[in-house]
Write a structure and sequence with these properties.
By secondary structure, this protein is of the alpha/beta class. It is built from twelve helices and 14 strands. It has a domain of about 220 residues: NAD(P)-binding Rossmann-like Domain (Rossmann fold, 3-Layer(aba) Sandwich), CATH 3.40.50. Strand 4, helix 4 and strand 5 form a beta-alpha-beta unit.
Amino acid sequence: MERSGQAVLVTGATGFIGGHIARRLLSSERARVRVLVRDPRRAEDLVKLGAEAVPGDLGEMNSLERAVEGAASVIHAAAQVSSVPRREAFVEANRRGTENILWAAARARVQRVVHLSSIAVFGMPAEGEITDRSPRGTSGDPYADSKYDAEVAVERYGRERGLPVTILRPSAVYGPGSTHWSVIPLKRIQRGKYFLVDEGQGLLNYVYIDNLVDAVILALESDKAAGDAFIVNDGAVTWCEFFMAFARMAGVTKRLPSISMRTAKIWARYRNLIAAIKRESSRVPAEALGFMAAQAVYRETHIEEALGYRPRVDLREGMGRTEAWFHETGLL
């Protein structure tokens, strides 16, 4: 679809993935970018670049109607990703929030909705070779289950309301600005508090942020993308290989310490108990530990064959760019 002069609404633009998407649209594309934000102050840098900030929330239908009015397309990147004690927090943000933006988009007759999902819809943890045609479903992990439920809603709106929707399923997204897959690991390694599980021989599927944004832009503009879903994944390496790259950035040359899965589960129960006592929001889901030892490989061949997508930045270059950003921001 043609984007020149047309408005594109981005949800989650004050976050990691949504922010990169909004900046790409502002710098390299010819679209008018509109961002939905709870606190307009958090979008000041985007506004300076030319974005229009619309105050609102995924739970406020009136604000969503204002945000999508006149928009040609919607990129839905907002999501609850942090581990919180209440499952309802994931349901509210990821399932109901998605349903609400779909309702507003359908009412406004937008030409395309690109929904950022996750490989977690295939199970947490999954095993074996996973493609976009592999079975999905709930697995007990609150994040994974809410993302699966959101996909079901997206498909329903496409089928029953004729809304042109595209689902993207990224793996672990790393790169400049990534909290969970870049900043936190680096800081924990620097403090000597990062450990691998079972020698880090589980497989981590990863995608560099700029590659994911490439896929988002392609999904936005390609007519072939409507009504389809795509895994976006650069490849898979062991957890040891991936996080030793951060260790080397931090000047750590020795192999990262490792604990057994049994010990990891004991640690997780202890960590969650302390968090509950201190009334901290962070929790360690048991399913996440299994994810660290899983041997699943997610194949991105469908998006390559259907849309001609190819990742431009390989792991070596992606880690180099991430390290340069660490230096720029004073993390190294």
